[in-house]
């Protein structure tokens, strides 16, 4: 971007203005709890030396172009989910899409960032190869099953249920359990649920809230089918041109958010679930029913890993390390 | 020159034909998908992705040049109508050259992007795994064809006796917007 | 300064006859290059072409256009108009009111203002002139109201584009257009009736047997409407998917009543892809130009200037309405919408206006733009079919533009007119 040049020859006190682009709107949790506080904190830590021009809500490009736009330097910094880029960020995409891993946003975020510090392969495959430097990765609250009419207690109940999914690995999970995955655009979800074109949707709690479909959904079942993992990433060239103190401030601001952002997200989730319980039912699963979900998700994960066998990525190693980290922050 | 133009026109016929067929296919495909979903709970996997990722691309980009031939791209004419014929020709040449330069550039960029898609093995966002690079090449082709048409139009304005203008000035109702 | 230069270049190229979509692409790209340099320029140009068409939701546009083409080629709209004339053409104002009814009826099948105007001006204006309406009155009525009814009553290309661009619910937007459409039709009928009393405009009365006979000619139209609505309301398909049902239905009916053959089907397909390519060229150009506008920061400074101006929300809304009326003088509907929404929509959200309601308002405002000189496509089309000079068509449209403005005023005062159906159904 144009600002890179100014950062390259910047002297000590010159301000550096960086472009930050994301597809999420300013009202979303990813913006309120991750993006905005991070920018604020960086500016604060550098005594105002670093300023940001923020372009939220697809102002600089569509969601599916966010990685490219950051890599090509259209924006200096990008915030986007790995889920949209399975081919560019295969490892993070797998951690995001596979079922029954993190329980909360806080747990997932802390564990993922620990992994990012420790696992060189993850850093190399998902970020360095794409010309990106990660500041932090943010794991959303889990995606669950929300239905309009049918109470889903065990995986078998999903048979034939037309469910909106976001594609990717989660799609395969639903298919494995016998659901009919239907991709419906954001603008059409309400209508599709209302008319019965779909019977349910895979959403996080705050996702239900943001989509405005809460009044149509009657049941929620929580087997934790995947998450969204957002990266806050800097273009590598831009990063290398930044003074060391700025780099340090950016990393520091990122680390500070690892704990906070997840907690706030989880609070919103709980608040929404409480609100939802007034008009709908959050299905209380017995231990036996829980076991059935755990069994089927475990089977799926094993099958999925087997299928990836031929590809060159260390899925299993990264997954196991992520699980270990998750165990620590339970 | 005349031969080249003929070759181009027949190629244009083929691509716009594919475009029209794509629209027909899209209509039938979506209908069948909905029927299968409603009555058999078995939608055609990947319909939503494939229609956006490929059918829309074929439909729009392979008919860009044909649309220009039919004078189908809507424009502001109230001032242009008052121009004399020579001035009209000059403005047409200028605007055509401007647009041709940029469309040529977009064509190249999309071709390169397609190569990059191959390199990174970028695949469909849906459950079906098929590569997306060809879609970028289709865009590149469509952009190249509109570039050529704009240039040919310029040439036929500059050398009017050599080339018979094939532009059938379409009725204004063909310019359909909202 | 740069922004101003680019905008002036945009106007210059538009006025010397460069296609609107091309102009937006060329000028927007140049602007991006000048503001943000070569990397940004190539980065945006290599992704926008793909991303602006890569959407399932957008398939509804070519498919609804295709449906309208099939209907137009099978003369179904003409049958509808003739039937309505037989029933009410003999009362004062009956022919004019028939025109409104037929326009609204055709609007249930066409989502494009200009397609509707071009078909109905061929069919209705000669009949109205025969019934001793002034040609300016007839042309003005068709130019200003036929297209507006087509885009208010679902399906509607502009409302779908609005939904896609602002990420609002398509279903809600389409429903929000229905009552304003009916209101507009009512106001038009009332106006025509009042002005017709002294003009004594009517045609000869048809016999009852003729009337009932004419009903038999409109069954294809009725079946198609019922079929599309049934598909949507029985939950078989979404409004997007319904377009495929509509197009296929129109094709089958056309073949069944032997008004379509292979040749006319191919013609309909070719016309539809051409209209689609035209619309998407503008959409792509609109995106590129909007990115340029974003990168200059002009948009954000306008928004912050407005939010810090201390003006009341109603004053700002008034200014936005005036802005769209001025824009409509020069630009076409889809181009203006794509170009301005990234800037205007956040303001509307920030002021707390309803997003669905605003979509209906914008579409109505820009429809007025289609009948105002210097650039008014519906004006040109109507003029061509009625042989009435452009300036006289505009003169004839003035009272109807007044009615459109009255409709907008009523919508501002009573937002429930737009919001009742989406919130209660
Ligand atoms: Na309509
Ligand atoms: Na106008």
UniProtKB/TrEMBL annotation, chain B:
GO terms for molecular function: transmembrane transporter activity. Its main location: membrane. The keyword Cell membrane applies. The keyword Thylakoid does not apply. It holds the Pfam family DctQ. It is found in: Cell inner membrane. It is a multi-pass membrane protein. The chain crosses the membrane at residues 12-32, 93-112, 132-152. GO terms for cellular component: plasma membrane. It comes from the Bacteria. Keywords: Cell inner membrane, Cell membrane, Membrane, Transmembrane, Transmembrane helix, Transport. InterPro entries: DctQ (IPR055348), TRAP_DctQ (IPR007387). One of its GO terms (biological process) is C4-dicarboxylate transport. Residues 26-156 form the Tripartite ATP-independent periplasmic transporters DctQ component domain. Belongs to the TRAP transporter small permease family. This is TRAP transporter small permease.
UniProtKB/TrEMBL annotation, chain C:
Pfam families: DctM. The chain crosses the membrane at residues 7-33, 53-71, 137-164, 170-197, 218-236, 272-294, 314-344, 356-381, 393-421. GO terms for molecular function: transmembrane transporter activity. It is a multi-pass membrane protein. Keywords: Cell inner membrane, Cell membrane, Membrane, Transmembrane, Transmembrane helix. It is found in: Cell inner membrane. The keyword Plastid does not apply. Residues 8-417 form the TRAP C4-dicarboxylate transport system permease DctM subunit domain. GO terms for cellular component: plasma membrane. This is TRAP transporter large permease. It comes from Peribacillus asahii.
């Amino acid at each position: 971007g144009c600002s890179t040049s100014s950062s390259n020859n910047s002297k000590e006190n010159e301000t550096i203005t960086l472009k930050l682009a994301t597809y999420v709107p300013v009202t979303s949790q990813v913006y309120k709890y991750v993006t905005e506080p991070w920018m604020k904190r960086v500016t604060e830590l550098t005594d105002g030396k670093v300023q940001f021009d923020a372009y939220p809500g697809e102002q600089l490009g569509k969601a599916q172009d966010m990685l490219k736009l950051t890599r090509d330097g259209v924006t200096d910094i990008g915030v986007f989910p790995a889920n949209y880029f399975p081919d560019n960020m295969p490892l993070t995409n797998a951690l995001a899409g596979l079922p029954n891993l993190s329980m909360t946003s806080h747990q997932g975020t802390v564990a993922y960032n620990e992994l990012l510090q420790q696992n060189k392969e993850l850093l190399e495959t998902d970020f360095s190869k794409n010309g990106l430097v990660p500041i932090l990765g943010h794991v959303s609250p889990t995606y669950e099953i929300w239905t309009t009419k049918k109470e889903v207690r065990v995986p078998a109940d999903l048979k034939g249920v037309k469910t909106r999914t976001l594609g990717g690995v989660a799609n395969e999970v639903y298919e494995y359990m016998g659901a009919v995955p239907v991709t419906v655009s954001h603008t059409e979800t309400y209508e599709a649920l209302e008319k019965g074109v779909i019977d349910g949707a895979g959403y996080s709690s705050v996702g239900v809230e943001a989509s405005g479909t809460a009044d149509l959904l009657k049941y929620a079942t929580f087997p934790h089918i995947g998450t969204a993992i957002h990266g806050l990433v800097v273009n590598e060239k831009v990063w290398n041109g930044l003074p060391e103190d700025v780099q340090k401030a950016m990393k520091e601001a990122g680390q500070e958010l690892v704990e906070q952002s997840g907690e706030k997200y989880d609070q919103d989730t709980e608040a929404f679930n409480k609100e939802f319980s007034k008009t709908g039912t959050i299905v209380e699963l017995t231990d036996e029913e829980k076991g059935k979900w755990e069994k089927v998700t475990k089977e799926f994960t094993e099958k999925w890993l087997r299928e990836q066998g031929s590809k060159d990525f260390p899925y299993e190693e990264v997954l196991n390390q992520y699980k270990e980290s998750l165990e620590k922050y339970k | 020159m005349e031969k080249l133009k003929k070759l181009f026109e027949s190629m244009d016929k083929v691509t716009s034909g594919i475009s029209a067929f794509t629209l027909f296919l899209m209509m039938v495909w979506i209908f069948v998908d909905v029927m299968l979903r409603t009555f058999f709970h078995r939608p055609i996997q990947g319909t939503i992705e494939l229609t956006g990722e490929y059918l829309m691309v074929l439909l729009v980009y392979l008919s860009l040049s044909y649309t220009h031939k039919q004078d189908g791209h809507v424009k502001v004419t109230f001032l242009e109508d008052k121009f004399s014929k020579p001035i009209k020709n000059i403005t047409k040449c200028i605007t055509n050259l401007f647009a041709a330069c940029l469309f040529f550039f977009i064509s190249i960029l999309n071709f390169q992007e397609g190569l990059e898609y191959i390199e990174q093995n970028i695949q469909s966002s849906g459950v079906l795994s098929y590569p997306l690079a060809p879609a970028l090449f289709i865009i590149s082709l469509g952009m190249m064809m509109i570039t050529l048409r704009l240039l040919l139009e310029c040439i036929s304005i500059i050398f009017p006796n050599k080339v018979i203008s094939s532009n059938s000035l379409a009725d204004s109702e063909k310019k359909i917007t909202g | 300064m740069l922004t101003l230069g680019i905008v002036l270049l945009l106007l210059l190229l538009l006025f010397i006859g460069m296609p609107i979509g091309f102009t937006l692409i060329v000028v927007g790209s140049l602007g991006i290059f000048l503001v943000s340099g070569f990397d940004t320029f190539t980065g945006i140009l290599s992704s926008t072409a793909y991303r602006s068409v890569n959407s399932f939701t957008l398939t509804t546009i070519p498919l609804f256009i295709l449906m309208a083409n099939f209907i137009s080629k099978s003369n179904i709209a003409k049958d509808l108009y003739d039937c309505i004339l037989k029933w009410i053409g003999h009362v004062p104002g009956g022919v004019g009111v028939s025109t409104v009814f037929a326009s609204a009826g055709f609007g249930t099948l066409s989502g494009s203002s200009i397609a509707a105007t071009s078909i109905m001006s061929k069919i209705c204006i000669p009949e109205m002139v025969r019934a001793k309406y002034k040609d300016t009155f007839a042309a003005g009525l068709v130019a200003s109201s036929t297209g507006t009814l087509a885009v208010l009553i679902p399906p509607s290309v502009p409302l779908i584009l609005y939904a896609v661009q602002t990420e609002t619910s398509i279903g809600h937007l389409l429903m929000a257009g229905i009552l304003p459409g009916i209101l507009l039709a009512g106001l038009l009928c009332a106006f025509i009736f009042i002005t017709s009393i002294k003009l004594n405009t009517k045609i000869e009365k048809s016999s009852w047997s003729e009337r009932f006979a004419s009903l038999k000619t409109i069954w294809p139209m009725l079946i198609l409407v019922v079929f599309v609505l049934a598909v949507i309301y029985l939950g078989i398909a979404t409004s997007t998917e319904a377009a495929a049902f509509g197009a296929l239905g129109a094709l089958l009916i056309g073949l069944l009543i032997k008004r379509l053959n292979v040749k006319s089907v191919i013609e309909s397909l070719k016309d539809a892809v051409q209209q689609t390519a035209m619309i998407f060229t503008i959409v792509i150009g609109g995106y590129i130009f909007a990115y340029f506008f974003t990168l200059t920061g002009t948009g954000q400074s306008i928004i912050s200037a407005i939010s810090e101006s201390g003006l009341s929300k109603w004053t700002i809304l008034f200014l936005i309405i005036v802005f769209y009326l001025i824009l409509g003088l020069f630009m076409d509907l889809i181009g203006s919408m794509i170009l301005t929404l990234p800037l205007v929509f956040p303001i509307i959200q920030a002021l707390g206006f309803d997003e669905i309601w605003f979509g209906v308002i914008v579409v109505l405002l820009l429809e007025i733009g289609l009948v105002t000189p210097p650039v008014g496509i519906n004006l040109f089309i109507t003029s061509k079919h009625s042989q009435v000079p452009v300036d006289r068509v505009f003169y004839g449209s003035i009272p109807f533009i007044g009615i459109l403005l009255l409709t907008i005023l009523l919508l501002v005062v009573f937002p429930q007119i737009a919001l009742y159906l989406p919130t209660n159904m």
